[in-house]
Task: structure prediction
Amino acid sequence: MKVLEELLENYWILNDQDNEKYEQIRQELDDKTVNFIKQKLGYKLIINPYLIKLEKIPGIPKAFMGIKEFSSKLEYVFLCLILIFLEEKSRKEQFILSQLIDYIQSGSTEIDLGEVVIDFNLFKQRQAMVRVLKYIRDLGFIKLYDGDESKFAENIDNDVLYEVTGVSKYFVRNFTSNITDCNLYTDIYEQEQLGLDQDKGIERRQRVYRRLFTENVVYNEKQEDQDYLYIKQYKNVIAQDVDQMLDSSLEIHKNGAYILLAEHEPFKNVYPATNRAISDVVLFFNTILIDMLEENKLSKEQNDTIVISEIEFSQIVKLLKQKYSQGFSKEYREMNEQDLETQIYDFMEEYDMMRKEEKQFRIMPIAFKVKGRYPKEFIE
Result:
């Protein structure tokens, strides 16, 4: 077991949920890994009888780092209110869903939630609440004791019995400053950087390592990009760390650096992704882009990106369906082109392969590193 891989891959490892992994990590966690976590990543490692948690802070906050199970601000509001509710509960204490609902409804009148208005008479809000309940249950905040929370979406009077595990107290990290005046996630980041010289010393090193270990790719975004200059300057040291800590390699190109994972590593959110059919679709989308470049139908800019209009994007997706859809999953074979465009963009944005600009799309360099093809047997 690579201890650092497990700590990076999982939000935390709970003793109750996976005692074998919990004990194995405790036994195999050596000084070398602990020093790397503290010195290079600057992360806090929490180990107690209930859990092991590596507090992963981004080098630079990115939108894709949000909770993938959530799709609206409302769900984050529910999550925060639930955390406050659970803060007052002791370990193994039980509560019913209606108690939580009453607490949220009463609490929402006392707290300024901005544009969010809570009304559980609305089906969509009950649906959102169910998603949050499932999320915190999977994460281990609570245990389902009796009932089915999914039925709450259909009937507001449906009740469920839960048991508190106590681990929710470790969900939110301790901040170095007061965040009550922050309105955006970027405000928290900027507030914690006040007074620090971000382009020198330990702050710069930890930011670069955090970016490489948590982002899909670190681009050379501008002239004298300090993060990219650091990567180039200390590439041998970083490459050695990546090899030793992840058994993987550091790839550095003119306008992008990223960690190329070993094929046998079972990471969850990687590209290409074996567990997401849209990943295969994007592989062939990138194949068409590469072919068009080779045929001089598209051209790269100085920073190795290409710009396509909204019309060109639609034309490429149409060509994609005509040329390669026979090997797609049933969902994507039958999907209309407009929905397919949305799915492709969302996936590529998540992996920083594409960015939306005014009435056009910018294809980023990482998109040209991997393409797809069908095996000879399938073509025949």
Remarks:
- The mean pLDDT is 90.
